[in-house]
Fold this sequence. Notes:
Chain A is an all-alpha fold. Chain A is built from 14 helices and no strands. Chain B has 300 residues and is mostly helical.
Amino acid sequence: xxxxTRSQVTVKRKSxxxxxxxxxxPVYIMMAPALVYLFINNYIPMAGIVxxxxxMDYNSGxxxxxxYGLKNFEFLFSTQDAFIITRNTLLYNLAFIIVNTVCGILLxxxxxxxxxxxxxxxxxxxxxxxxxxxxxxxxYIVYAFLSGENGFINNVILPLFGNEEGxxxxxxxxxxxxxxxxxxxxxxxGYGCLIYIATMNGIDRALYEAAxxxxxxxxxxxxHITLPSLKGTVITLTLLNIGRIFxxxxxxxxxxxxxxxxxxxxxxxxxxxxxxxxxxxGNTGMSAAAGLYQSLVGFVLxxxxxxxxxxxxxxxxxx
Amino acid sequence: xxxxxxxxxxxLVSHIILTGVTIAIVMPFVLLFISSITEENTLIRNxxxxxxxxxxxxxxxxxxxxxxxxxxxxxxxxxxTIIGTLINISISSMLAYGLSLRKLPFKxxxxxxxxxxxxxxxxxxxSYLMWTGTFKITNTIWALILPNxxxxxxxxxxxxxxxHSSIPEALYEAAxxxxxxSFRVFLNIVLPLGKPILITMGLFAGLNYWNDWTxxxxxxxxxxxxxxxxxxxxxxxxxxxxQFLATNSAASSLGExxxxxxxxxVRMAIAFVAMxxxxxxxxxxxxxxxxxxxMGAVKG
Lengths: 319, 300
């Protein structure tokens, strides 16, 4: 009776499907709010990248605005801005990667060396505080130091060196590469440092005991055990940062220099350019073009860096 | 324990360098605080300094009396932080729970859907047009809550990994045999056992909301937007418009008082008041913050 068997099978399959649905439906319902949020917050804007190829007309909306080909990109790349924002974004990020890695490792090594338990904890706690503050707060602190009339540096530090005039910090672009790198290091030092400390805590104690039995001092142990075992973390973090090299902290470049037009040559990055083109200038097309340029190059870089990370350290890869 | 000369030197040098770093980190906050309690004329004459000639709490008294704008902004920050964090943690923990179930159909597809948001994004322009055009959140409280901070894909992955490693599969199976529904399992097993990770991720979500000023910058405009300024937005606005306080109270027909507003110190006082809660809770919750960072938790 092949007929019967077949129908029995279908019935069974149907009921197992229904059972499966019954089993998993509540789980899907629980997952739904987050998935819907991602759809709205992340996926709809992805479709919106077509704006970069349109001549945006607010009256007719995104979809009915006329196509504009690559004109927006032509305009963008015919200005000097495209070069400046790309250069600034890349160079700052490179500087951040180098300075943060070196300082982070140095401090992590020093902190783990400290024998005094409470002092060690104190250092570790304080170093993280700036990381928890918003860029607006940091911009106030920077202002207290750099303000032209009231700033601590102009009023107290520079006169010590015989400079009574002071420097108009918010007008002179040449100082800002140092200021930005300094502020970034100050803010993010604790973050990197903690990651390295976590790696160091994972190093097998037996290695150090063996080394010290062999007569190796602390410096030798640091050089031959601690630093080599950080290699994996350093490479992974660097690759992940390279993946993000086309992006920057909007607040650091917008808020800290107080949106000063005089400083644009050294503080304008892709993120601030996109914002100013959209909000200040109202040039949607150009802003969208710069945004898409960032997203696409960023996407390629993230893919490449992740593939490399996955080869070296599968646990740290995003996918 | 016998300590070698080398070791003693290392201890000493480490302490010296780390003390230097600690000072470099603490001093700017101290400058901010001292500036806020410096007498206004001293500030104008000598600038912000660590050892002012004359102290004064006028800035804090002013904040208290002026209250309206500043307390309002503070209240809005608190409301937004609480609502945003609660939503973030509820929807994140449920999504991570689903993704941690080994047998969930379409699990790989859903994981990819979550991960892809970390690789590619549409950028500011489409997001801006969508939130303002389609969802019309401009000048509503949702402007500060909805965009960007309600979910972080990275944190979902960290929560899922935690569930995987700390909740034994056998527990789920036992609950299933007992006939418990998925929601019951989530409430009675996953939530209690996942508490440490949820506190950690909740802290980072809360910090993001507390510190956020970009959403206000994008989506709050004009007079009716100002009513919804968070404390960060207010600070942001004050630093860009130095005369803000003066004009603000001039508008309330207190022309002569405008001249007496200690604006240089008030600015620093508000900044200090804005960061105070973070400074206060940090010592008690630092374990969670530090663990979160070691895991790779992200902050805005």
